[in-house]
Amino acid sequence: MKDAAPSMVLLSEYRAPDWHVDHLDLCFELDPVATRVESRIRVRRAVGTEPGVALRLHGQALELLRLEVDGSPAEADAVTADDEGLLLTGLPDTAEITVETRIRPDANTALEGLYVSGGSLCTQCEAEGFRRITYFPDRPDILTRYRVRLEADAARYPVLLANGNRVEAGALPGGRHYAVWEDPFPKPSYLFALVAGDLTCVSDRFTTRSGREVALEVYVEHHNRERCDHALASLKRAMRYDEDAFGREYDLDVYMIVAVDAFNMGAMENKGLNLFNAKYVLASPDTATDDDYVQIESVIAHEYFHNWSGNRVTCRDWFQLSLKEGLTVFRDQEFTTDCTLFGAKRIDDVQRLRAFQFPEDAGPLAHPVRPDRYAEINNFYTMTVYEKGAELIRMLRTLIGRETFRRGLDTYFERFDGQAVTTDDFVAVMAEVSGRDLGLFRRWYTQAGTPRVTACSTFDASAGRLRLQLEQRTPPTPGQDTKEPLHIPLKISLVGADGDRLEARLGDGPEAQEWVLELTDAEQVFELQGLAEAPAAISWLRGFSAPVLLDAGQDTAELAHLVAHDDDAFTRWDAAQSLLRRAVIARVGEAPDGTLEATLIRAMAALLEDSRVEPVLLASLLELPAHRELMESFEHADPVVIFEVREAVKKALFASLEPALSRRQGDPGALDNDAFTAEAMGGRRLLNRILALRVTLGARGALEDAETQYREARSQTLRMGALAAVNESPDALRAELLADFEGRYRDDPLVLDKWFALEAGSQVPGGFERLERLLEHPGFRWSNPNRVRAVLGPFMAANHRHFHHPDGEGYRRIAALIEHLDGLNPQTAARLVQPLTRWRRLDPGRSTEMHAALEQLAGKRLSRDLADVVQRALAP
Ligand SMILES: [Zn+2]
Known about the structure:
This protein is of the alpha+beta class. Helix content is 40%, strand content 21%. The radius of gyration is 28 Å and the shape is globular. The two termini are 17 Å apart. Bound molecules: zinc ion (ZN). Residues 302, 306, 325, 328 line the site of zinc ion.
């Protein structure tokens, strides 16, 4: 990569297409070794362009067999081949271009375009995979209708699927057969999909509210037939929810989901034919945990919701990726909140945001929700575009109100149906329906970095007035040295000494108990009037109303008051997190804060005794901030010290609470069922969390409880909970149970991934040898991203002692493995390398070692995907 600085694509250089595509006919003669693709593209020159303007056909790694214009071979001097594909000049204003290409799916390990997974042929076209199938103007703002004919060997590939509705099928000579699919909805090429395989179909039906009968079909390998019920039930719930909550109805006669073993991402929303990583489809109580069940439901809903937010209204260019992803993540979060997890969902989401998106926004890969440049678009499928993008949508709703927001969404879908648009278009609709000026709000889309908000308050008892003084500041990020103030909605309320909410007026507003403070300047003052008493605590950032880091200077007593009384589950939990974070920070400074820890112990004791605290919330309240998140509290941190201090704080806080923990743990026998309800899952979550805490404390009977729970478990949630609890234990029990698990699920790759993850992530001695053994395990496959992620991911995220070994061996080993992976699957390599980009935030010794490993990697011949990430991480 030394000499190959990847060229940048710039938003400022966007130009509307010179050519439209009126129709596309595709014919595939499918074969894993040599697939022949014939494509007939009807093009029309766009109004306002020069006659004869060149037509760009993107193409990559294709063998061109034939190129014709209106039935005659293209003139040699009218065709230019370059890195991007072909450039055709001298075309008439309308033309039919015929392209015949040959591709080799079985050699495609990048898993973009047409490839082989298991015994099936399948596609992944987002973002730019279609150009690996045929020459075509592969950009999201070119929408057209597709007619697709698939031909294949009938015995090997009995199932032939593509987007839309199947209009024809039949036998062909020589044991072959065919199917023709037509999609009535114009779509961009990234939403194209086909599947050919020997799959079984589990089906169901759904009647939309306007009476359309829709066939629901889930295609899996034959032996997985019994594991599709949850996916189908989730799909039906999502379809109903989208009608009820968002007024969106499905539009084709069939909705198909295909589970694929080898898949780079979670799932893909191709029109009417979703392709899923099998991990997000297959579930049974014996193989999937509650978290898996929740994730499957969420991913199924997410891809389904894309039918409107993404497919019917799509992105003009890839800079607008958050237009579909931020909005769709917001929609799936709402679904899981309303249908499955309720209040716990927000806490889970904020935990993830803080552990992954905040570090991204503070590191070398920071970028705005709507980036303005990229070298490789695959590297922008990030937490920022997805999760922070969803926070932006949520803030818009907070600012303009639920009902107006819903009207805005309806207007957006109606106005832009069938079009490719921008995030600006979206915000403009919200401004229009609300009559609000959202000009300042748009900065959230263009400015990277997590804003810091500081707040302080002074109470004037004689006037009954609370004065709130707020400041915001966003630190510089790569390429953005100076930052502007953002439009930040801060939802707050006041908690009185007896724990009740206080009434007051914001400015000259009405009496209320909750207010949204709209920060728009760098510094601002708000006043709450008419208070009868001094607030004992301010509940800031209720529901996490904005993705900011807030420092309100609250003391231990005020935070403890919120832990005890706040009626907002998020802020209550967040107050506990603040106290726990402070306890860790104090001990990293080598001086435990006795007062703080005593307060925390009292607070935790009270929570454990309070039967009104729901198990799911209690489980979250007992948890310390994640290691990743704690690392962010320090400019330079020693990851092993952070881990050890985190464990020490757990022991200091909970050692004296062991009896109370045992009492709240719950009865494994009673909880061990497959009920998919918030209550049941909350009970299991609390059970597993307390078990893990008791093992960490070395509590009497804890290991025995873990063993019993493991051996008697009927559900994977309890089995995995017991196994995870002992995974850091030096006791022989750990090895014994893990060996048992490996034997039990050896032939079940998705479950075996859990074992890979525990083995790779454990810090017990011998981590490097274990890593070697895992890579040589008969179940491990470099060609399958799930396997690779299961081993490399936890090794980097959880095995601090080995990944962060002081002599740099962990970094060097990972760098070598990433280099190897890059030769097969650049996209996955570019994702997995990211922990190696954090070198600036480590202690000096490790920083040097990680930097050296990254530099060494940079000296190798790398893919564009990986080179892009490594270069940004090393940039001064
Ligand atoms: Zn998505």
